Structure prediction request, 668 residues.
Amino acid sequence: MSDEPTLTMIQVARRIGVSAATVSRVLNGTGPVREATRKKVLAGVDELGYRPNQLAANLRRQQAQLIGIVISDIENPHFAQMVRAVEDSAYMKGYRVVLCNTDEDPAKQREYLGVLVAERVAGAIISPTEATAPEISELIDHGVAVVGFDRAVTDQRADAVLPANSQATRIATEHLVGIGHKKIGFVSGPVGTETATARQAGYEEAATAAGLAPIVALGDFRVEGGRRAADELLGQGVSAVVVANNLMAIGTLQAIRAAGLRVPADLSLVAIDDPPWAELTDPPLTTLAQPVRAMANAAVELLLQRLQGKRKRPKRLVFDLVFRHRSSCCLKEG
Amino acid sequence: MSDEPTLTMIQVARRIGVSAATVSRVLNGTGPVREATRKKVLAGVDELGYRPNQLAANLRRQQAQLIGIVISDIENPHFAQMVRAVEDSAYMKGYRVVLCNTDEDPAKQREYLGVLVAERVAGAIISPTEATAPEISELIDHGVAVVGFDRAVTDQRADAVLPANSQATRIATEHLVGIGHKKIGFVSGPVGTETATARQAGYEEAATAAGLAPIVALGDFRVEGGRRAADELLGQGVSAVVVANNLMAIGTLQAIRAAGLRVPADLSLVAIDDPPWAELTDPPLTTLAQPVRAMANAAVELLLQRLQGKRKRPKRLVFDLVFRHRSSCCLKEG
DNA sequence: CTGAAAGCGCTTACAG
DNA sequence: CTGAAAGCGCTTACAG
Prediction:
């Protein structure tokens, strides 16, 4: 146990023979400092092992060097990838990342957003469960930069980074149509979320355009709901399924196995999202991959532009998904 | 845009007709307050929509309500599970979680630990890349509660939550021995880490006890290293492999497929860790699962005991892994 | 280019 | 049970 009391900037300044203001300016790279003074301060700080108290700086600046990430669940590989990429780029810019799992629970989301207000975070990247939550506007009122991720938030002042949802399911469906499928089911997300609605719309458009009747089973973006929805579709004798996210793809695979069917011989499968296990399944899964890293980097970039006052107008960036053709689909003979 | 300037506690107190001290005591549940006063304050706070500035409280208390989680990579499902469980229990106790990915890079770990010191976090849960880093002692000097997770830290004042590593690989190896395997390989973690060493030791003990020569290929706890190590073992004609973590199990499966071999007909496989995809592979993977949630909950519990001053003596908790028997092993005829 | 001083908004020991 | 006041350790407008 070292008993040295923690050094304050004033004490350090005194020992070096300058003022606290000068130490602050050197350490933060703000304001003009003579090169000789700068070197002297740096040497002194290093020698004394001084570490500024970030808590005081935060209060003074009225801002924590923190970015809040509000997502439904970090155990979803889609969000794990996203969080990882955000952390990487935020870290390099001097920001730390606070993790907020909402489990798609509006109450938990609101509580967490309140915390982010109270903590005066610099920015927030939000995959909203409730896009209209008033706390989002409260954040923006407080000068916090807000970016909607995956789904936009209602407050028009926020930025957004979105996947081309309806295009993705349209492509998936058209692929199945193209290889001869006539009864194509869709495992949807929960009603009312923008992502779920858009993905379902893309599927329905493509099915209708091909003269097929849409067959939709309601899921919840989770394993269990995917399983139940897939069971329902299997009962209706579909020959192919489009699944609206990766967790429900797990559920769908479980349902297929439980029914004693084989992919793709008995059932063709395309899923949105491209989790790491997509090529480990039997057979490897054909998917539409979101460019998660690029999207996360874009989100941080938008945030920083705001924080640096480089931009006032809200921006909305849409990213195409990438078709990853593997082995879970096969031709359906008429 | 609401133009109301942010309310301070003093303004709120004045409007309610009490002192800031009383408002603080009511909101924090500290000190004695007459019930009537309490109600009046609560009503006023609610009506005014007052939200305390946490930054000021942090400075005053010399502590942020933050728990730092230092891990190698959130994209590893083992850590995603751990972070999720930590966040859940920390959240309920009023703490937020700051995510620190080190990529097993000692320099990045030290930088991040320095940040945690500067931010005066309340606690840190660390899966150390470098167990001896002096910043860990610095944290403890500052009164931060530190828990080693997966691996212990060197500073004896810290707590630790550990898996029974050598026991796990011993059980895995004994299982393969029991079903007749004579050439059992081991895909190890990187040299020098405690986890890797202990897991290798368990394997070697069991192999030696069965009269078999250990066959170890060096991995790195990542997909790529697992693949290379598995390639090496396949070249040596092993009939079974024990893999020291889940990422290397992916690499091992890739190597096996690339070699045109089948599990378990050509090669039996047991892996440490039980990721969500373990039952999606072909065949479903036999694993030894760490009770990650229980471990994470225990880590937060240890942290809180420290923060509440309930305990001085460091504690070390060891958790047994659970054998999950699936379909990736089969009998080897002598 | 540098310093003295105010002030960020809380919490808490102290006094009553 | 309640209040007045000090003080946490920085940053920054202001003065020189």
The first strand of chain B starts at residue 64 and ends at 71. Residues 18-22, 25, 31-34, 37, 56, 58-62 of chain B lie near DNA strand D (CB under 10 Å from a C1'). Chain B has a mean pLDDT of 93.
